[in-house]
Amino acid sequence: MLESEDVPSRPVKRTNSSSWMINIVRTVRFKHDALKDHGYWYLKSSEWSTQFPDSNGPNQSPINLVSKTAVYDPKFKEKLLSISYSSSRETDFLNNGQTVVIYPKSRNDTSVRQEQAVRSVITGGPLDDDEYELAEIRFHWGRVSFSYGDPIPLLFGDVF
């Protein structure tokens, strides 16, 4: 069972504090005790850099996109980003009133035939030789009152 987890507050610059937003990323944790110590959940995310030094840099959430400081990197032209998308007829949904989570199943998960798995994956570009599979899609809404550690992306320092 999944449950949203509140984290301590961090002020976020915004134009209207009563504005509403939809956010694809939201903090979630498993209630099951066997999984509570896994480092890849959002539990104690402010302490991740002690266990995972790579998470202590510019490549983690939240991000603030500012076009004036954007730098073109020609190496990304060498290996194009590739997105393979598979539609999913069987999908699980979770709605707790402020977050909707969609868990798509790959065609191999739902088929009784032994066929090649058709998955939604992204590779190439800045991802080196790694492949990332779509596991879930999150939509979060509500009044803007974000707290420290919330993975809220910004555009020019503003919530969008």
- Describe the global form: extended
Largest sheet: 4 strands, antiparallel
What is the terminal separation in angstroms? 30 Å
- Over the alpha carbons, how many angstroms does the gyration radius reach? 18 Å
How confident overall, as mean pLDDT? 63
SSE series? EEEHEHEEEHEEEEE
Write out the strand line-up for the largest beta sheet, numbering strands in chain order: 2-10-7-6
Low-confidence stretches: 1-42
> So how many helices?
3
Number of strands: 12
> Based on helices, strands and strand pairing, what is the structural class?
mainly beta
Instruction: Report the helical percentage.
Output: under 10%
Strand content: 25-35%
Structure described in brief:
By secondary structure, this protein is mainly β.
